[in-house]
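User: Predict the structure for this protein chain, please.
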Amino acid sequence: MAICKYCKSHNIVQFSEVTDIDYKGTILHVPMEYSVCARCDREFVSKEQILINDANGKAAANKSKAK
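Assistant: Here is the predicted structure, written as C-alpha cells:
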C-alpha cells in the first residue's frame, strides 16, 4: 500500500485515466494510473503504477504496430 511521502498518510486514492500519446505519428489511447493523497492532495505515481503504466504503453505501441 502506498504512503504519502509528504504527510505520511495512508489515505491514498488511486485513479486511472486514458491519456493520448503521440507515438510515431499515431495517437495511442493509453490507460495511466496515478495516486492522490486524500489528506494533502499530493499527486504521485507509485513504483507499481510506473510498471503498470509502462506495460500499458508498450502494449498500446505493439497493438498499433500490428495494424
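Helices lie at 47-66.
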